[in-house]
Structures are given as C-alpha cells and as structure tokens.
Design brief:
With 513 residues, the protein is mostly helical. It is 75% helix and 0% strand. The protein is built from 21 helices and no strands. Helix 2 packs across helix 9, helix 3 runs parallel beside helix 6 and helix 5 runs antiparallel to helix 20.
C-alpha cells in the first residue's frame, strides 16, 4: 500500500493526468499491426528460406540481418523521436506512419521473391521498417501515462501484440482450410504464404493509422507543465570527456581487429569441415565498429561539434543502474526466443516426422502447425497480459517477471518431450506467459528510472540487449546445431529454454523502489 500511495503522489506531483481505458486502448491498437507483420516474419521466414534452397545450418545466418538492423536503427530512431515535433502529428506518431508504409510495401513484395539473397535483403528492409514504427511506441507509453498506469499500458500493448500475432501466425493454416493451395513447385512460395503477406500489409497500415488519428500527444509545452524537461531543440551537455571516448574507442577497435584477424586466420588454415561460422564476422567486426564510433565521438566532441551521434554515444556511457540489471535479463530472455523462432519448424519436422525435406507434405504440414502453435502462445499472452498488473501489485514487478520466465523456459524445454504436435499447446501456455511479461514488465520497470526527455533514446539503447543476443543466436546456434547437436535442431530450442530460466534467476537482482 505504501508503494502504491507513493506512486499516486508521484503522479500528482508530475501533473500528468491518467488516461481512460478507452484512451489506453486507442494508443495501443497500432501494435496489433506491428505484431501482425512481426508474426508473419517469425512464423514463415525459416520456411521461406528453406523453400528457396537454404540448408538448415544456414538459417541463423540468413536471419542475422534483422537484429543487426535493429541494433543500428533503434537508438537512432529513439533519439530522433525525442527531438521531433511535426505540427499536429507530434513527436512519435510520424515514425509510426513512415514505418507502417515501408513495412507494408515490403510485405507486398515478399510473395514474388524467388531468390534466396533477395529474401534475405527483403527481411532486412521489413525488419528495419518494423523497427521505425515499434521503437517510438515503447516511449509513447512513457510519454502519455503516469507511472501508476504504465504496467497497464504495456500490458495493453501485450494484449494487442498477442491478438495480432495469433491471427498472423494462423493465417496460412486458415487459408489452407479455405482450400487455398499450401504447396508449390520447388523454389516458389505456396499461395497460403503469399496471401498471408498481402493481408498483413493491409492490417499494418489500418491499425497504425487508427492509433495515429485517435490519440493526441502532449505538446512540449504540456510536458513542461508536467515538470518534464523538453529538449526537442537542444543538445544536452556531454558528460564524457573526449579522452575517454578516444581511449575506449581504441580498446574496442583493437579487440575487434584481433578477433577478426584470428577468425580469418583460423578459417583459412583449418579443414573446411571444422571452420567457424562466417556469421561470427558480424560479431567481431561489430566490436571494431563500436570502437570506431567511440573514436568519431571523441573527434566531434573535441572539435566542439556535439550532435545527436555524440549524445547517443555519451548516453551509452551513463546507463541507469536498473537498466543495466534489466539488460542482462533481456539478454538471456531474447536468446531463448530467437532459438524458438528460427528453429521451431525444422526442429519439429525432424523430431516428430523425421524429415528435413522442405518440399515434403510432412514438412509443410508442420510448418503450418508451427503457425498455429505461435498463434496459441500469442493468444495465451493476450490473456496473461490482464494478469500482469494484478500479479505485480500482489508481489512486485521483478517477481512477476521471474515467475513468467520460469514458465517460458519450461515450455521450451518440453519441445523435446512431446512427440505429438497437439501436446505442444501445453508448451505454448508457458511460453505465452513469458512472452506477455517480456513485452510489458521490463519496460514498466525501466520507465520508472528514465528521464522523460530521454525516453526514446534510452528505449532504443535498451533494445541493444534484445538485438545482441539475437545476433549471438544467429551466429552461434548454427554452429552448435551442426557440430554439437548433430544437426538436431531440437537441442537448440532446449538450450533456449535453459537460457530463459537463467534470465528468471537474474530477476532476483532487480530491486524496486
């Protein structure tokens, strides 16, 4: 009760009014469209890649474009949306619209793809577009709601994410039931997948437009009246001296160079069947690139040319303590999720039907069933979203998140246990509970410790700890599957389950005020 009273007093002090339930719904509907596209991507991309000729150990590398895109775009879009104000459209909503249009175009083009490289490029474009819309939506809740309503706000986003993902995941299955062809000649996508992407493009545009035209953002003047500083036109004081930028940059650049050269030397001096995955270059070069960015920030800062780039690099050096604690939890949570998304179809095709032939009826049957499974876990997530505010008040937000992650980890591990696809619905219940919490609780806890005028950029930086584990999963899981698991993808998903349980244990480090 004391914590609740303190939160109410904080709301009164800030002056930010509470929104009605209808208002919270209106500002969250756009996420239905975003997740519709995300759900189509997650449920169908591995199937599309294999249809276009990818080997099973190549799949993680083909997925890698998506998280790399997020790593670059999310902090940039977050920073830009913090500084934006465009007439009646406001601060965040212009990005909702631009992202939705670009994503819809990518979804319309996808069904005509017949070359593997083209599919990988389109995945990059689609994921970049989704990120343009999605990143400001997280900050939108922090902008519009007082702290006492933020768990409800993020839970409402989880609800619409669940609904969008349910429908998008089950679409190929429903279309097959309506006698739409679910098979195609080698190298071509079946009509069930094609029509699903067309429908997804329309839903994306409509849902985001609904939020844009039914929700008005608080103006910079109103935010000031709530006691929240506006910095839409100024660059903050940079706290990192240029010497620190330079030293840090040199260290990271040297580490990146050493590991990149070591990887190159190893792969060119070893037998072909023992080479390390080329996707590891993304990690080693990424480390070096971070060093280059720090050095550039040092040069700009020393020359008195402070800009948005320098500000983002400075923010990276001064992360809030709670953000660091949550970052580690996010890391292990999203490593687990990525293992499920990229390997569910090939893992279950092997584990249940003992096939790796992407053109076989059994493979395509399980491909559609994975869509149904993903619909189930998202449906469970939509239901569990309403439970999160209740549990967080009874226990706390960290404890609630821990319980959910344990359920999700057990759900992934039971992939190995169930040999009947219908029994996997039980696994989806645990994963759905975890998914609802992952989409809501970390952000609810994080916004409590973020300054209002930096909400967007810190949300973007926080997403590093979603993206980096996905890059690791894309680079390492392929090697693990090939060399450690004997090309049995089911073990990669079990490893993801263990990773999620580790994330649950790490929640014990998080302390709430």
């Amino acid at each position: 009760m004391a914590d609740y009273n303190k939160t109410v007093l904080d709301d009164i002090k800030s002056g930010k009014p509470k929104l009605s339930l209808a208002g919270i719904i209106n500002m969250s509907v756009g996420f239905l469209g975003i997740q519709f596209a995300f759900g189509l991507q997650n449920a169908n991309m591995s199937r599309i890649f294999q249809t276009l000729g990818a080997e099973i150990d190549q799949i993680p590398g083909l997925w890698i474009a998506a998280p790399v895109t997020g790593l670059l775009i999310q902090p940039l879009i977050g920073h830009m949306s913090d500084k934006t104000w465009i007439g009646k459209l406001g601060r965040r909503r212009p990005y909702f619209l631009v992202g939705s249009v670009l994503a819809a175009l990518a979804l319309f083009v996808f069904p005509s793809v017949s070359v593997l490289k083209a599919a990988a490029i389109l995945l990059w474009i689609l994921d970049a577009s989704i990120n343009i819309s999605m990143e400001p939506f997280r900050a939108f809740v922090g902008d519009m709601l007082p702290d006492s309503q933020r768990t409800t706000g993020f839970a409402m986003q989880s609800f619409f994410i669940g609904i969008g993902a349910v429908v998008s995941s089950v679409l190929p299955y429903l279309l097959e039931w309506l006698n739409v062809s679910n098979t195609a000649p080698a190298g071509l996508l079946p009509d069930t997948v094609k029509y699903s992407f067309y429908i997804g493009a329309i839903v994306y545009i409509v849902a985001v437009a609904y939020t844009v035209f039914t929700t008005n953002e608080y103006s910079p003047e109103q935010m000031k009246s709530f006691g929240e500083t506006d910095e839409t036109t100024t660059v903050k004081h940079i706290k990192t001296p240029h010497q620190k930028f330079l030293k840090t940059g040199i260290v990271w650049l040297c580490i990146g160079i050493v590991f990149t050269l070591g990887l190159y030397y190893y792969n060119n001096s070893s037998a072909a069947d023992s080479q390390l995955a080329k996707e590891l270059y993304v990690l080693t070069c990424g480390v070096g690139a971070f060093g280059v960015f720090q050095i550039l920030a040092a040069l700009f800062h020393k020359s008195k040319m402070d800009n948005g780039f320098v500000e983002i690099m400075d923010d990276l050096n001064f992360l809030p303590a709670k953000m660091k604690q949550l970052a580690v939890v996010q890391f292990f949570s999203w490593f687990a999720l990525f293992s499920m998304w990229i390997y569910s179809t090939p893992a279950l095709a092997q584990n249940i039907y003992n096939t790796t032939d992407a053109t076989s009826p059994e493979y395509n049957k399980i491909g559609n069933w994975v869509g149904v499974m993903f619909a189930f876990y998202n449906g469970f997530a939509a239901l569990f979203a309403f439970l999160l505010p209740v549990l967080s008040k009874k226990f706390s937000r960290p404890v609630t998140h821990m319980i959910a992650l344990i359920a999700g980890g057990l759900g992934l591990i039971t992939y190995m246990v169930f040999k009947n696809e219908y029994a996997l619905i039980i696994s989806m219940a645990g994963i759905g509970f975890a998914w609802a919490s992952i989409l809501a609780m970390p952000y609810s806890m994080l916004t409590q410790s973020l300054p209002a005028h930096k909400m967007g950029v810190y949300m973007g930086i926080f997403n590093f700890f979603i993206v980096i584990p996905q890059i690791l999963a894309a680079t390492l899981l392929g090697m693990f599957t090939k060399y450690l698991f004997g090309n049995q993808a089911i073990y990669a998903i079990a490893l993801g389950g263990c990773s999620m349980i580790i994330a649950a244990v790490l929640c014990l480090r998080i302390k709430e005020k």
